[in-house]
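Posting here for the record, re: magnesium ion.
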Amino acid sequence: MVQKTGIGVSPGAVIAEAAVLRHSGLGVEHVTVEDIDSELAVFSSALNSAFSSLDATLVSSEDEKAMLMTLRAMLSDPEYTGLIKDNIKERNYNAAWAVEAATEKYASMLDKMGDGYFSERASDIRDAGYILIEAIAGESISAFHLTKPSILVADYLLPSEFLRLDRKFLRGLCLDGGGKTSHIAILSRSADIPAVFALGDFSIYAENGMTIAMDGKYGTAILDPQKKVLSEYRKRCDAAARAEADLQKGAGLPAETADGFRIRLMCNIEGVEGIDGAISSGAEGIGLFRTEFLALQKAYLDDGDKMFHVYQEAVERMSEYGPITFRTYDIGGDKVLEGMGINEDNPILGWRAVRFCMENKELFRSQLVSILRASAISPSVRIMFPMISGSEELREVLAFLEEVKAECREKGIPFDENMKIGTMIEVPSAAITADILADYVDFMSIGTNDLIQYTIAVDRGNEKISYLYRPLHPAVLRLIKHVVDSAKAKGIQVSMCGEMAGETEYLPILVGMGFDELSMSAHSILEARRRIRLLDKGSCTRFVNHVLSLPDAVSVEAALKEFTEQYGKA
Ligand code: PEP
Ligand code: MG
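Prediction output follows.
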């Protein structure tokens, strides 16, 4: 039995078999393949990316330079690459297995030739093999099939990989790394899949088929649990199901404080499959449709019509409940596809969202047209731009939207001339200048996941520094307050759609700040509604004024705990 505690990022207790995915060396899948050509293509593209990654490696000494040259030489060695290709062609090995087997064969042959020069070459060839296997892992997740109900155990997982998993079999997710507001965490919550991250080296101990018991609320994961532990987890699973059923009973009630302050609770979705959850939790609209996740399924990116039909379905199913906010592509950062040309040292500070879209105008135009076409179906459609950093950038994006609208008018494509336009506030420079940005838009929505990351300079996906990721840091709270006050002063609506909105313990602060809307995963809506109904807006406003004078996150957390014990916790 191996028991680990990490960060619970998506609630739910579950017991199921492990399906293990390790991206590097240790977890090479051994699969025999029919389609030799496509496996050879996987290998050849991995070889190309291995060369590119060597080219992109910065060297700081002659030794490092020599090492890179050796690796290049190994990867160019026809004897070695020939062995790999033979393994695919003659033994039907999948590409990663072919590399692993060829590497071991070649390296042990060199090992046998004696010490010194040859054993060094053996270790070089193992390094080269490792690089190739990593490159293949980046592309071959589609070959990683879940074939039965499983908890996926992995060292890490990319959003595009998650999207390619067969989710009907995905019961839970245990990752060695990752943070609570990483995109994988968001996707897990949206898909209602219990998830525990930052489990250290958990994946190393896991083997396919082992039993796992996990609890995404408390952040625990146990491999091969003893009988006693198993029966405790079974009880937890039952209790979680009962609690869920109880919450569900409140789905039809308004989210209104005891003294009559009404908040619109909306849902964040990544695709139309999120709409059922939104409706059943009683969401009053979609506050954030993260459209880029569809785009990561390339078929949609290449076909504007296909994309439009998804938007159309979302609007048709959701518009009777409230607004539907399409956020334009937030491509970049960790949300990339091969071939997008994004390969940066600092992707989170780099070519992302509107920065990427404004240089890929055809792609952007096609999305804007789809959103405009969707707006003709219902006045509930809103558009929102991510990662805006200031008024200049916002003006440029709005000018492009106007250009696309003009083209639609010319072509006779109908759209809603009064479609509401919003900007996300997720970059500190945007938050600080919210009073200026408010002049250009109908609403603002705070993306706390990025706002916190950029304000405190703490990577939202990095578990090593997750202790610094504090939504209640005074700098974050002051920025949020400034945004809300700026919106109110200019008479526009203000919303929050980052994960902070769905962390229901923060509600006294968010209610006190005066948000018009909060948008979160469907799962959090039920609990948020229950808590809001126990709160009193007057007390929350006074509490916020007090909290804003506190010096650090610890003091705010302590004050919030005290406030919650006094009011509003059932
Ligand atoms: C945010 O940054 O808070 C946000 C909602 O956008 P995303 O999580 O998709 O980056
Ligand atoms: Mg964001």
